[in-house]
Design brief:
The protein contains four helices and three strands, in the order H-H-H-H-E-E-E. It has one domain. The protein has helices at 3-41, 47-72, 78-104, 108-134, and strands at residues 137-140, 143-146, 150-152.
Length: 158
């Protein structure tokens, strides 16, 4: 497989990752606004403080998401595509935990946003695995090996 073809495939995948992550980011920003607005309104009942604290926690998570989007936007190799798949696989458990906590403690909006994050993580991980398999790429550590030649690639680990 020529480098131009690989680069085109990787860029298309990176664009999909970035678009889905931006949708998630915007969703979480709306949830943060909701948490602060209603947190202030319900502050006298005590529940408001919990909403404001959750909003602050979500701001921290959004900052991390912005950093991830910047990285995802710059991937150029199959090794990095594998790194993205590994990222979603490693974060699946924490996403499930936060989704369950949101549903248990009344954060229905956060629960559904976490469900979206879980689904896009699974979809993007599966897409990465499919892309690597369809292009006869074997990725181990920082190396990608093609059926017809061997190519060294850099892979950023999260």
């Amino acid at each position: 497989m020529g480098y131009g073809v690989e680069e085109e495939i990787v860029k298309k995948y990176a664009k999909k990752v970035v678009v889905l992550e931006i949708i998630s980011l915007v969703t979480w920003i709306f949830i943060i606004l909701y948490q602060f607005l209603f947190g202030l309104l319900f502050l006298i009942f005590g529940y408001g403080l919990a909403m404001i604290i959750a909003g602050i926690w979500n701001i921290v998570a959004c900052v991390k998401t912005i950093k991830n989007i910047n990285y995802f936007n710059s991937i150029t190799t199959m090794g990095q595509v594998q790194g993205v798949a590994n990222f979603y696989k490693m974060n699946r458990t924490s996403t499930i935990i936060f989704m369950i906590l949101n549903f248990i403690f009344g954060g229905v909006l956060g629960g559904f946003a976490s469900l979206y994050d879980l689904i896009i993580g699974i979809v993007l991980e599966n897409d990465a695995q499919r892309i690597i398999a369809e292009n006869d790429v074997i990725v181990t550590n920082n190396n990608a090996q093609y059926a017809d030649n061997y190519v060294n690639v850099e892979s950023t680990q999260y």
